[in-house]
Amino acid sequence: MSEPVRLDTLDRRILAELQRDSGQSLEEIARIVGSSKTPVWNRIRRMRAAGVILGQTVILDPVALGFDACFFVLVRTSEHEPEWQRRFLGAVRARPEVLEAHRLAGEIDYILKVRVPNARAYDAFYQALIAEVKVHNVTALLSMEEIKSTTALPV
């Protein structure tokens, strides 16, 4: 695991602005954080090189695109061999419906965040997953309401 990168107040303000809207111009970011364009650009380049900034992307509205159903899928397995894990992780990583996947401590082995148009599409995802890899128990929880969703870290 890598060490945290040392950031000063200006770095953190720049990161907060990039998280808020990475599409804004360098001039706008510099104005908001109280600096000029060149120092802001140099700091952004330094933070990219250090691995603080991993990339830039666009956040889409899943409902506007027809992905109305969000399921949290709890997976328990009785298999813990490296080959099973390789197949399971490969299957999960290959499925575009899986937005997040985490290995957990405790009674549940994995949790997946799955975004699909509806319950029928979830069932197709589930059937494909269990056809690829054996799992002991799967519990799907349908999110009734998204209360908070963010990618922004509290810098």
From TrEMBL:
Keywords: DNA-binding, Transcription, Transcription regulation. PANTHER family: DNA-BINDING TRANSCRIPTIONAL ACTIVATOR DECR, LEUCINE-RESPONSIVE REGULATORY PROTEIN. It holds the Pfam family AsnC_trans_reg. GO terms for biological process: regulation of DNA-templated transcription; response to amino acid. One of its GO terms (cellular component) is cytosol. GO terms for molecular function: sequence-specific DNA binding. It comes from Rhodobaculum claviforme. It comes from the Bacteria. Residues 7-68 form the HTH asnC-type domain. SUPFAM superfamilies: Dimeric alpha+beta barrel, Winged helix' DNA-binding domain. This is ArsR family transcriptional regulator.
